[in-house]
Write a structure and sequence with these properties.
Strand content: 25-35%
Number of domains: 1
Largest sheet: 7 strands, mixed
Order of helices and strands: EEEHEHHEEEEEEEEEEHEHEHEE
Mean pLDDT: 97
Low-confidence stretches: none
CATH class: Alpha Beta
CATH architecture: 4-Layer Sandwich
CATH superfamily: Ribonuclease Z/Hydroxyacylglutathione hydrolase-like
Strand order of the largest sheet: 8-5-4-3-2-1-18
CATH topology: Metallo-beta-lactamase, Chain A
Shape: globular
Structural class: alpha/beta
């Protein structure tokens, strides 16, 4: 099966009359099936989709990577547009979230129809070949991105370790592709979880944000060293990775690396 991945919203944009924002939304087409991965910070991804001639009313599932507003801000707009899609996420996504003292969690959770949610706790194939991975062990704690983030659990505000985070995996024959939004629990840890579940399968594509735009050199080196050993055929960077870090990855891995800006289409 071939997969088509379209970046509907991202921080950067080039041409085509599209717009960007600090957020991320990816549309995955698996044959005739459509899965939306995150909804950006607003309804911008819907407006961009219209400009690109993409119909979002036939999306079957919207998968939420975690509860931050720049990934869930467009959810209520999408649910108003699409009356049938299920929302796939972890139940912890409803816990209030903060960056330092500022709220940045799922907007207006009280207004959402909970009957449209499908809470997952284990690896699940939602359409043929498309899996959600809600369990990512912190094997390498140097590749985690929890600084300045907090969540409220049972009325207590505590450091956020992103128990709500999940990744999207596309399986094709003897290879897998991994999509992550912010990789707060670490892209290296996410890849380890996927390869443990699918032993022996090659990495065809890794695409997403690695949350290292302000990271120290040792954190970047942890990721680049790991990818040097597990290098996928294609490495797509976006959102919270940082343009400067993209340039470093490009220097290291050359033409395997691309930036998935708003409007980018990747076929695998």
């Amino acid at each position: 099966m071939n997969y088509k991945i379209t970046t509907l919203a991202e921080n950067s944009v080039y041409g085509k009359g599209l717009q960007g924002e600090h957020g991320l939304s990816l549309l995955v087409e698996a044959g005739e099936r459509k899965v939306l991965f995150d909804t950006g910070a607003s309804d911008l991804f819907i407006r961009n989709a219209r400009l690109m001639g993409i119909d979002l009313t036939d999306v079957e599932y919207v998968v939420l990577s975690h509860g931050h507003q720049d990934h869930t801000g467009g959810l209520r707009h999408f649910l108003a547009l699409n009356s049938r899609a299920k929302v796939v996420c972890k139940k912890e996504i409803f816990n209030p979230k903060f960056k330092n003292e500022h709220a940045n969690g799922l907007p207006h959770p009280e207004a959402l129809d909970k009957s449209r949610f499908w809470f997952v706790e284990e690896e699940t194939e939602i359409v043929p070949g498309v899996f959600v991975f809600p369990q990512v062990k912190l094997v390498d704690r140097n590749d985690t991105h929890f600084e300045h983030f907090f969540t409220e659990i049972d009325g207590e505000v505590r450091p956020d370790t992103f128990e709500d985070e999940l990744a999207l995996v596309l399986k094709e024959g003897k290879s897998v592709s991994v999509l992550s939004a912010c990789s707060h629990r670490g892209i290296t840890n996410i890849i380890r979880a996927v390869q443990l579940y699918f032993p022996g399968l090659a990495l065809k594509l890794v695409l997403g944000g690695f949350h290292i735009h302000n990271a120290e050199e040792d954190k970047f080196n942890t990721i680049s060293t790991f990818l040097g050993m597990k290098l996928p055929k294609r490495l797509g960077l976006c959102h919270c990775t940082g343009i400067d870090k993209y340039a470093l990855f490009r220097q290291q891995f050359n033409d395997r690396v691309f930036y998935s800006y708003t409007g980018w289409i990747e076929t695998i």
